[in-house]
Fold this protein.
Amino acid sequence: MTWKNFFTSSIGKKFLVALTGLFLILFLIVHASINACIFLNDNGDTFNAVAHFMSHNWILRFLEIGLFAALILHAIQGLMVWKQNVAARPIDYYVKKQNRNSTWYSRSMGIMGTLILLFLVMHISHFFVGTKIALYAEHDAPHDLYLEMKEVFSKGIWVALYMVGLIALFWHLFHGFQSAFHSLGLDHKRYTSLLRAAGTGYSIIIIILFALMPLSFYFGWIH
Amino acid sequence: MEHYNMNLTLKVWKQKNADSKGKFETFKVSDISSEMSFLEMFDVLNEKLIEEGKEPIAFDHDCREGICGACSMYIDGQPHGPWAKNTTCQLHMRAFHDGDTIVVEPWRSKAFPVIKDLMVDRAAFDRIIQAGGYVSVNTGNAVDANSLPIDKSDADAAFAAAACIGCGACVAACKNSSAMLFVSAKVAQLSLLPQGEPERRTRVLNMVTQMDKEGFGNCSNTYACEAECPKGISVLNIARMNREYMHAGLSADEK
């Protein structure tokens, strides 16, 4: 069993999807925590300070490369697995009663993942690109990310699209959290119920936190 | 239980052979007893077709006791029909009512090509078992039955996994046509027992490699397989196989 055979096998591919997925789950905790600084309602002073630290710390910049690598790997592996799975059943059933044996969101990881990918294109062009341009501009021009958020989320269309993205993310996480542990072999009568509860709690808290950000700006709950 | 007779409409997949294109054909059956099994209902239909000089519908069956794993019909959108933990031969007509239309399809998977009508070729499962689903035993005297102590819980878990009859309902139910539940049942059974220990690592690697070669899909943890398995094989076996595969794959000697 060479490394290549290991990671290109059906189970090896799932290991990669699970490991990168868990890394992205950890990232979301960091992302949500930092963004939650806007709720201090201090005109974004704390938030901008943390954002400045995040974009100027070399360890974090290095981790950022890992983040994008994990995201790309997760998406590519996921799409490859999805393509193979479709090919494994060339003729589909005429009658399907899949709701009797599985949940719709467990069967929709590919679709939800694709929606998240589309959402990320919008999200990165909204916030990531501007930050990077400011970072590499002459004299490291100061960048008010808080103001940028305020501007983007003053428009109803963006707020609505962010909500759609977050709904897709919720169902993806809701299945993905526990699924990742199962793929890594961590499924056990004693711990599975705990993992499921943790996954449910995580998905709900993360999504509510994120959803509150555009809504707070749009409805003027923070100034 | 109250006995009743019923008239039914059947939409059945008819396909001449693996190379031909199949299609649904509609058949009417009348005076079907609620105490018949689903296969007996097909027997009645086939007798009628033979008497009319038509070709009977081909389907797999053997023991008709729910233990051999030969029967394999996808009935009204579910493998082995609407009853949980049940095979097609043990599905009784009291699951249906007078006037019902029942759609019957073969297992659908690239790895299970249709032989004829409702019969599919499940030799892919045999090749996976041949790749490692066994324990090599040297000839000689039989050892004493009590010479290998086995923890009761391990013996129970191995026995539960060994209950797999290899019918392929897991593949048929899975949206990805994945064979993970079948393969994991055998891997888990033998990895739990001391007799399986010597070949533990090569077994899981070889069986998974063969599974991938056969063209089954990947597991996406929807657990449809467990819900539809006539023997109630647990998806915990899949997690166990993932662990076994990780251990064996990462500790292999090759670079």
